[in-house]
UniProtKB/TrEMBL annotation:
Keywords: Membrane, Transmembrane, Transmembrane helix. This is Low molecular weight protein antigen 6 PH domain-containing protein. It comes from Micromonospora coerulea. Pfam families: bPH_6. Residues 149-177 form the Low molecular weight protein antigen 6 PH domain. The chain crosses the membrane at residues 23-44, 56-76, 97-115, 127-146.
């Protein structure tokens, strides 16, 4: 069961743009490209390296999945803080778990698709299609990491939730008063929308219009802290203009009971 209180830490804290995930993903792309070239040119097949290197992407991918699982677990121990982007915009950034997930997908999809590229594209359409789909998935995920997605931004206008494939903007005025309450789900937060006509969608975004879901699995934030912060701005319209300012930070910290 989660603790009844969130960790005692600053509610809003400036933070530089994280680069660790980008470095990991870039390294995975280099390794995947080098392995693909070796396979396509026949540098692995029939050599002493056929055994250990032939399964290298899958092995690295499974290792990244283990790292991801260790990172996304125990959401109640995540930091109770928002990142200050600039006055008027606070951010819930992606945690390192998403970066590990993308690394795993790069390696696993590479290991699955590249061996099928040594075919005649006119005769083996399924293999070529598989490789093309793998490349598309990798491109979408890598673009998301380098764009800092997934993330959730709090602005004076409302909530901006950016996923790897789309964006959803939910104005404060669209949300029900007194919501969201603390929920027992550490990996998701369901909002209550009473004016769905105010919600804006862009890209491939799915979900209920009146109960949109914020996926917390990849986000670096304590779930109950986020629910409390959102409810504070829903119920106190005058505080929205002070969002991300020192005075607004102080009042938010007092309201949420964090140091």
């Amino acid at each position: 069961m989660p603790s009844s209180t969130v960790p005692d830490t600053s509610a809003i804290r400036p933070s530089p743009q994280p680069v660790a995930d980008r470095v990991r993903v870039a390294a995975a792309l280099v390794v995947a490209a080098a392995w693909a070239v070796a396979v396509i040119r026949g540098g692995i097949r029939g050599s002493w390296a056929d055994g250990p290197l032939g399964t290298a992407p899958l092995t690295l991918g499974l290792s990244a999945l283990v790292a991801m699982a260790l990172t996304v677990g125990r959401p109640w121990r995540r930091p109770a803080r928002l990142v200050l982007v600039r006055p008027g915009r606070l951010r819930v950034p992606a945690g390192s778990g998403f970066g590990w997930y993308v690394v795993a997908q790069v390696m696993i999809l590479t290991g699955s698709a590249v061996p099928h590229l040594d075919v005649d594209p006119l005769r083996d359409v399924p293999a070529v299609t598989l490789a093309a789909l793998a490349a598309l998935v990798i491109a979408v995920l890598v673009a998301a990491v380098f764009d800092g997605r997934p993330r959730v931004d709090l602005t004076s206008h409302g909530i901006e939730a950016r996923d790897p494939t789309g964006r959803r903007t939910i104005p404060w005025a669209a949300l029900a008063a007194g919501r969201p309450l603390r929920q027992p789900h550490g990996h998701k937060l369901v909002l209550t929308v009473v004016h769905p006509e105010l919600v804006e969608h862009r890209g491939l975004v799915r979900g209920s219009a009146t109960a949109p879901l914020l996926t917390l699995t990849w986000l670096r934030v304590q779930p109950w802290f986020l629910a409390d912060a959102l409810r504070w701005y829903v119920d106190h319209p005058a505080e929205r203009v002070a969002l991300g300012t020192p005075d607004g930070d102080e009042r938010l910290r007092r309201a949420l009971g964090v140091g």
